[in-house]
Amino acid sequence: MRRSTGPGSFDGGYVERKKGILEHKSISVLTTLKDDKKMFRMWERKLKNALKEIWGPESVEHLAALTKIPERTVNTETKLQEAVRKIEEKFDSEEKANEVSNDLWSIIVSKVEGVGLEKAADVEEEYEGDGLMAWYRLVKWCTKVGGEGVTEK
């Protein structure tokens, strides 16, 4: 936690402010993912490693569970939203699920460019800012090759 003084602090004391996800060094030094899908697996590995340090390993495992959901089972926006909500229920609290979703949205918007960002952020207005849905879309787009997903090593 970062401590700061200023407006909102009492008697010149410290007010705790949680460090934003993009302020973490392991995230700020993460390269930007461009349109080269071949680079995705390495980029994803580095991101997940950084997120384990920030969120803890259990939260990263929930992301993995989300991306294992077959696209054919979530072929509409509503079905995808239902799948994402089931994953959110696995987190310790609603607050933690919201933190993860908001952090993912921030990371995707700042660390993904080009078609990947278009695919990830291509959600109906009511879901804009939903990092878990954006993450699912990004992973599925990046791992598609000729209509088939790339198998994990």
Short description:
The protein is mostly helical and 153 residues long.
Regions with little confidence, pLDDT below 50 for 5+ residues = 1-6, 146-153
Strand order across the largest sheet: 1-2
Estimate percent helicity.
40-55%
* Strand composition percent: 5-15%
Descriptive account of the structure:
It is built from seven helices and four strands, in the order E-E-H-H-H-H-H-H-H-E-E. It is mainly alpha-helical. Strand 3 and strand 4 form a beta hairpin. The N terminus and C terminus are likely disordered.
What is the fold's blueprint, element by element?
Elements: E1 2-4, E2 15-17, H1 25-28, H2 40-55, H3 57-67, H4 77-88, H5 94-111, H6 115-121, H7 131-142, E3 144-145, E4 148-149
Antiparallel strand pairs: 1-2, 3-4
Helix pairs in contact: 2-3, 3-4, 5-7, 6-7
Q: Can you give keywords for this protein?
A:
7 helices, disordered N terminus, two-stranded antiparallel ribbon, 7% strand, single chain, 4 strands, disordered C terminus, mainly alpha, globular, 153 residues
